[in-house]
Design goal:
By secondary structure, this protein is α+β, with helices and mostly antiparallel strands. 40% of the residues lie in helices and 14% in strands.
Amino acid sequence: MSVRELKRHEVMGRASRKEIGLEDAATLMEVSYRQAKRIWKRYREGGAPGLVHRSAGRPSSWSKPKKLRARALALIREKYSGKIGERFGPTLAAEHLSSDDGLEVHPETLRRWMLEAGLWSRQRKHKAHRKRRERQKHFGELVQFDGSQHAWFEERGTKCFLMNMVDDATSRTEALFSEAETIWAAVTVLRKWVSKYGIPKALYTDWKNVYVQEPTPKQQLRGEVPVTQFGRMCAKLGIRIIAASSPQAKGRVERNHGTHQGRLIKKMRLKQIASRDDGNHFLPGYLADHNRRFVSAPQAPEDFHTAVPKGLDLDEIFRLEETRTISNDWVVSYHARLFQIPRNSRQHAPARSKVTVCEWQDGRIEIYYREQRMEWDEIGQRPATAPPAVIRKSLAQHRKSKALPMDHPFKQKSYQQMLARKALQASQKLGNP
């Protein structure tokens, strides 16, 4: 019996003992007088069991067929079950039962079935300990950027990073698998975002050296703000980089990591995906479905993305740029590589002048002097500064220049006599007068 039925049994007992009338009983049961008369009639005819609802214990007319339930649970045991952390949740399992197996079951109905069959367990929800930051109002106003290292391919492949971009206002997502959280991985994801939606107003990142750097003591004294290569690229596009002080500050992308770890890993398990290349080939379809399900409408309709300016080549933005000095023999040193610049009338850069070395993701390198591209040839070692005969002549002149003059104190008679006395004293000590 339910709590309400037990309460009615107690009230009807008092009415049968004539402690209260039916009007008072109706008030205590919070029903009308006519309903109290019906309850009193059922109590007199059947006693306490007569107060139990007539539908108790009977199958619902809205219930699913038993064959459908048995088939759904069998498919879950076969394809979507496993250890805690690996098994599919009711919502994800319901999606795949619908798309892959043709079974339409509501996630809450499937949750009850899985609980009764022991295929799912209720997870304790922790109380929130801090207030969440409100979303930005416009799409493109703030995009959170982070990399998540995880066993994305489980035991089928090695650990790698998922470079993840999440719009703060809508939760729209763009992602890429990479070996490490490097500048080129970040550039690839950002370029895909810019190509799809435009240039965002700001990026919310952590304090990794890929995105921002803390100033050294010398830079602090000079008042300089260090800029990374990625920061320089974003500055050229007008993107502001904001560094978060804690993982909770960029909770939107952190929770998005958790969603991918709960859904993406299991979907790739079904496809037996075991490498980054196959994973990146699978991501576009997965992200399209993910955005369709989880993207929310922004509070304001205006899009804060800006279009790429006409005439701006993104290849000139997304490249590494470093300043180098041309040596006296017209050689530029760049990361243990030597580039010989030919001297000609068309492109002539003075020795000791500054040039800019540009490197692209595919390894292509160009050298610019005052925005003019220069020709170069890579060499294995620096050329000799002078022929061997000239070197020997210069060394002989150096030795000759070091000869002592005749008036040097070391050549005076007093100095020679002092040396003779010291030699005589040393021989006497040895017993050789």
